[in-house]
Design goal:
With 297 residues, the protein is α/β, with parallel strands linked by helices. Helices cover 23% and strands 18% of the residues. The strands form two sheets. A six-stranded mixed β-sheet has the order 4-5-6-7-9-8. A four-stranded mixed β-sheet has the order 3-2-1-10, with no helix packed on it.
């Protein structure tokens, strides 16, 4: 009997932390499974290469989307903005790892085909309270002592602003999603969450402006998603909206996870995944910070 592949996912490996690096090294062999690595692996191209070289031989296929940390540049960095992103795409391609710039793969699981849509959509500050422009959103965060390092290190070159880059990525991705295999159920993969109401960050609520874009609020229904995979929040969770499963699959910083848990148990099964559940509507008391948590692993 041919073993059935599974589609697994993890994000926010942040391997500049020793404990996280050790966790990655402890991964078992999964010769039939595909693994999504949903951004924030590291800050340097050589660390991304190390992760891909470590995990590549243990999985049937790796898939990667960038997070904000990978896109950071420092003074004197060789690559900035889009150029930095494309350099990371090169690192992936040299290792046979799929990226948002490659043809989207069709994966058959349990006799059903799925389109695995790898996305890179960025953020545009529109998760801030309604009516705020980006400057006001940043000032609103600063009032609470919050300032995302993206403001200093995530350059938008050649786009005038990060929100312009985000708008361009969103427009091109929407066009692609409308065209490619519209008949297939999709797994949408993006580092940043696609909806504000799945963002649950009670410790730093004013980090919201850097968490995604309101432009993707309806993408789970508009583009026929079976599952939406994201990271960035360092708050692992599974939510349902309109019958679609939303998986937040972060590992996070060492303080965000328990080292006694085997790393393999933190690889979220995206497909075949749990049986369909009743939808849970967001509790209005949570307002922009999200609805009730269905499961948190
Ligand atoms: Fe992260
Ligand atoms: Fe992130």
């Amino acid at each position: 009997m041919v073993p059935m592949p599974r589609l697994l996912a993890i994000s926010d490996l942040h391997v500049r932390h020793k404990a996280n690096r050790a966790a990655v090294e402890s991964t078992s062999d999964h010769p039939d499974d595909w693994l999504i690595i949903a951004g924030d692996v590291c800050e340097k191209a050589e660390d991304l290469a190390w992760v891909l070289d470590t995990l590549g031989p243990r999985f049937a296929q790796l898939l990667w989307v960038p997070g904000n940390h990978e896109l950071w540049s420092h003074k004197g960095s060789e690559h900035r903005g889009e150029d930095k992103y494309l350099d990371l795409v090169r690192v992936c391609r040299e290792r046979g790892v799929l990226t948002p710039e490659d043809p989207w793969a069709v994966l058959t699981i349990d006799g059903r085909e799925y389109l695995i849509a790898l996305l890179f959509l960025l953020f545009d500050y529109s998760f801030a309270p309604p009516g705020m422009d980006p400057e006001q959103a940043i000032a609103w965060a600063r009032e609470a002592g919050i300032m995302c390092i993206d403001e200093l290190r995530l350059h938008s070159t050649p786009y005038p602003t990060r929100q312009d880059w985000c708008a361009a990525r969103v427009a091109a991705s929407a066009e692609r999603l409308a065209k490619e295999h519209p008949e297939l159920p999709r797994v949408l993969v993006n580092h940043w969450p696609l909806r504000r109401d799945v963002v649950r960050i009670p410790r730093v609520p004013r980090f919201l402006p850097w968490c995604g874009t309101a432009l993707t609020e309806d993408w789970h229904t508009r583009f026929g998603a079976e599952v939406v995979v994201s990271g960035h929040l360092h708050v692992r969770a599974t939510d349902y909206r309109d019958g679609v499963r939303f998986e937040e699959v972060s590992l996070g910083y060492p303080r965000n996870w328990r080292p006694e848990m085997p790393f393999d148990s933190l690889l979220r099964e995206v497909l075949p995944g749990p049986a369909a559940r009743d939808e849970v509507e967001p509790d209005p008391r949570w307002h922009a910070l999200g609805g009730p948590r269905r499961r948190n692993r």
